[in-house]
């Protein structure tokens, strides 16, 4: 089963992760730290399980220490970077847990699942930023392909014993 980030309004999944994105389990062995993590992720009445994870986008850069090729969390790191900033936006407890018997049911609260679209503007902004980044990467890839073609032409010319030739041009084209 693919893992997804437990933070509210985060759609990052382990199955389609980017190279820089890492996932971190909740610190069950440290109850005080676990409580801070649960409060900060912004989901009311949330109880993490053993394999529940949160992605690296929710931690500040100073929360990480690098050992070799790995990106590790420091022992006291707490997730603090979220799409929502106001603590009043944290979802309240579920109505069935708080309402007294015999009272009419209240309007349903928004879902706290990561796939629910709570903030369309933020999602749209994230989409456009991703599309812009995609376009930049396409241009960069195209430029790198041109560089590779030139290098291959120079290598072929060098192997043929004609080091004075410009890359990709035949002798009759050089004049």
UniProtKB/TrEMBL annotation:
Source species of the chain: Rhinolophus ferrumequinum
Chain coiled-coil ranges: none
An MF annotation (GO) of this entry: zinc ion binding
PROSITE patterns reported for this sequence: ZF_THAP
Domain named THAP-type: residues: 1-82
Residue spans crossing the bilayer: none
Organism classification: Eukaryota, Metazoa, Chordata, Craniata, Vertebrata
Protein name stated in the entry: THAP domain containing 3
Keyword line: DNA-binding, Metal-binding, Zinc, Zinc-finger
């Amino acid at each position: 089963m693919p893992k997804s980030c437990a933070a509210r309004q985060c759609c990052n999944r382990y199955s389609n992760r980017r190279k820089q994105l890492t996932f971190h389990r909740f610190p069950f062995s440290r109850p005080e730290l676990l409580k801070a993590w649960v409060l900060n992720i912004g989901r009311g009445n949330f109880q993490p399980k053993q394999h529940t994870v949160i992605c690296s986008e929710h931690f500040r850069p100073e929360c990480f220490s690098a050992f070799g090729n790995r990106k590790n969390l420091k022992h006291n790191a707490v997730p603090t970077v979220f799409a929502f900033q106001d603590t009043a936006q944290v979802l309240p407890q579920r109505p069935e847990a708080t309402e007294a018997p015999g009272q009419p049911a209240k309007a349903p609260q928004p879902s706290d699942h990561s796939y629910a679209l709570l903030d369309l503007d933020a999602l749209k902004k994230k989409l456009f930023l991703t599309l812009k980044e995609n376009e930049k990467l396409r241009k960069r890839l195209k430029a790198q392909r041109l560089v590779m073609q030139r290098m291959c032409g120079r290598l072929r010319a060098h192997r043929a014993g004609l080091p004075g030739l410009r890359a990709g041009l035949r002798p009759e084209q050089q004049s």
